[in-house]
Amino acid sequence: MTTTGSSSRKQQQEAMGMSCCEERERPRKSCAPVHANAGFAAGVLFALLVYFLVRQQTAISAATTAALAQWSTVKQLIRAPGETQLIKAPGEILVTSDVHRVADKQPIQDTDNGKVVCTTEDRSRGLSGTCEVEGDIRTNGTALSVSLVPASWSERHEWMISPYTRSGQSLRVVTVTQLQDRAAAPPCTVTHTMPAILFGIGGYVGNYWHEYADILVPLFVAARRYHGEVTFLVSNIQHMPRWLVKYRALLQGLSKYGVVDMDRDAYVRCFPRVSVGLRLDKDLSIVPELVPGARLTMADFTRFVRETYALPRGAVTMEPYKKPRLLLIQRATSRQFLNEPEIARAAEAAGFEVVVTELRHDGSEVEQARVVNSFDVVLGVHGAGLTNAVHLPPGGVLIQVVPYGKMEPMARFDFSEPATDMGLKYLDYSVSAEESSLLEKLGPDHPAIKDPDSIHRSGWTTMYQFYLMQNVRINTTRFAPTLEQAFNHLRKQ
Ligand SMILES: *[C@@H]1O[C@H](CO)[C@@H](O)[C@H](O)[C@H]1NC(C)=O
Ligand SMILES: *[C@@H]1O[C@H](CO)[C@@H](O)[C@H](O)[C@H]1NC(C)=O
């Protein structure tokens, strides 16, 4: 068994999706303390978002670009079984003989005006609005617009939808229009008989937790019902092209048709149905009752990921002479374990095989997931790295170490229910003042030590500067019962 040496630590963290990117703070002016429960939840959520915010790397390797070009179907002729599609340059005349449905000549539903059902932006939860459009639809990538063409005259309506789940992001907004009549509708350059989902990359992408919570889980919810017969229209790809490469397997697992780079799409595409934006019902989880067309759970999502990545372990199984394996996640800058070797020894004493693998920074998402899947327990201080728990086999354990300063609501909000919904056992351990670097740094009389509420009242920035910038030295005697609980849970399987 191996435990980390400090030299391997950085590589390991980078591989775990934590330190490759510079973490930075971006306080929002409107983040005033709120006292209602919902408001508080939103507040802590926002705190988390900012805390997780990382700057993406802008350099894209040649290999990455090549891989993207190969996969992206921007200008490729797409022919699906049972459907005929022609892609022509705008202005060219479609050869209609083998096109059974050309929208401007023969509407999808002659008498149907179609429908648009939108949700509005939810400011209290910081979520963008979404629209479900059904009928005779035209998309225009240049204008980033989605228009519903009615069969007969109807009232014109317009919605502005951010294609990123969390509001307040600087992405181009999608204009969803219900046109008055057919006269205003541009002819189709491509006619798709399958539905499309339009979403954007940007916002907090670059942070592992947000990549799953803001895009991958909501996309699974939106797309799973189509069994691969769906086209993804992705906007703001230029924000981070390598994102599509990183998650290629998952995207391909949800759509057989790849991705249309919306901002560069010169065609007018016609669809019978388009979802604009992704709905985020629950952070890093799924509300089964709200899934369109099927009842899906967060456990279904992690199963989908395991199947797509071909992860070998679909459940925790305890073998008589094998110790359960615990992955200790160390962070690069803030919220580090100061006595990591001692914690590793305590975990070994509790019966675990403590392995800290040296993953390569440029290792693939799939390889990283495979490594995590070989463990039974993930242990770490609150942070995006704990998102790796999605790759644990069900029945496994996530142990979150909560930094000092009444951080439990925020920490739990992001990992407790998600982990439980994934079929994992969730445990946390709250750091005492004695275990925090803050005590030594500030002294026992500082308000950050004596009165955490006052720090939370003074706003996000102050809270961040104190409680999210501490390191922890875990009292392993005090921590031992948590390790024991994790061990006992696994032994019961
Ligand atoms: C798409 O939108 C752009 C920008 O509004 C516009 O100039 C262009 O004519 C539109 N394309 C078609 C085919 O209508
Ligand atoms: C560690 O925790 C134990 C049990 O809570 C306590 O008795 C002991 O004093 C603590 N040790 C230190 C150094 O704080």
TrEMBL record:
Instruction: Spell out where the chain crosses the membrane.
Output: 34-54
A Pfam family annotated for this chain is: Glyco_transf_61
- Alphabetical list of InterPro entries matching this protein: Glyco_transf_61_cat, Glycosyltransferase_61
Task: Identify the GO cellular component terms for this protein.
Answer: Golgi membrane
Pathway linked to the protein:
Glycan metabolism
Major place of residence: Golgi
Where it sits in the cell: the answer is:
Golgi apparatus membrane
- The annotated regions of Polar residues compositional bias extend over 1-14
> Which GO molecular function entries does the Swiss-Prot or TrEMBL record give?
glycosyltransferase activity; pentosyltransferase activity
Which residue stretches belong to region Disordered? 1-21
Domain named Glycosyltransferase 61 catalytic is located at 295-398
Entry keyword set: Glycoprotein, Glycosyltransferase, Golgi apparatus, Membrane, Transferase, Transmembrane, Transmembrane helix
How would you describe this protein's topology in the membrane?
Single-pass type II membrane protein
What this protein is called in its record is Glycosyltransferase 61 catalytic domain-containing protein
> Coding gene?
LOC123141087
